[in-house]
Amino acid sequence: MLRSLLLSLAVALPVAAQAQVEIREYPLPPKLYAHDVWADPAPDGPVYIAFQRSGHLGVLDPKTGKVDTIALGQDSAPHGVIQDKAGDLWLTDGGQNAIVRVNGKSREVTKWHLPPQRGYVNLNTAAFDAAGVHWFTGQNGIVGRLDPRSGEMKVFDAPKGRGPYGIQATPDGVVYFTSLAGSYIARIDPADAITVIEPPTSGQGARRVWSDSKGILWVSEFNSGQLSRFDPKTGAWKAWKAPGDRPRVYAVYVDEQDRPWVSEWTAQVMLRFDPRTETFETFKSSSGTANVRQIHGRKGEVWTPESAADKIVLYRFK
User: Three-class SS of residue 16?
Assistant: First the structure.
């Protein structure tokens, strides 16, 4: 069940800059459709997978390649999965129109359904703020919050309607989200106020966002094919076009060395960006079409779900 290979392909970089990256592939059972992943922070810990078509949380053991599945309920279709500090897993379940929690030890499933009057919201992704409140997006035009302690849920209309997609918290717990259809990023302020921040490139299709260790935000721009950077302290933006012809940058994740990784859908490759040299490195698994929808990682590792290839891929670096 486990295949391993070693590949490294750099773009526009001198040979000395081409760091070795081990690429290890974990085949998945067919037709489950891995959408998002989350790697437990412990070395060799499990990797959790949102299986969108089958309605399961997947649990991959990297040591054996074994995948366990946990059923989330009738009509389940999870999009995103994240882990809290206690080790529990939280899924934004579009099929059930609910936030779903799976206890990391007992695997007990708990659900919080969105208010019926909201209808179907197309739940996407989630993040925790500094107070431990669970924030989530719905691409049909909503942003919501769930207090895990009280069970209280509030849902807000997003600025400009449809589009809320990626969401992330900075190290100090400030939550930002992106709007794919609205082409903006936004900050969630105290008292649940939402402040829109317009990127300099119009119609860029801001899809996902990730913070580095200093609270600087990195944004994957799907329409423009750019990786952009926003510094909340100065308000400064900068953007870099991904390599290749008509790139489409889908997901972004920042590793512990503050290097952004992005998935690029035109060439079907993974890119690692070095902010110091402002250059990209390119890596590719054995898949012709991967369609990596989210990226996550832990020390020395980046994990990707290849939704089009029924596999999870590990990029291990020094």
Answer: helix
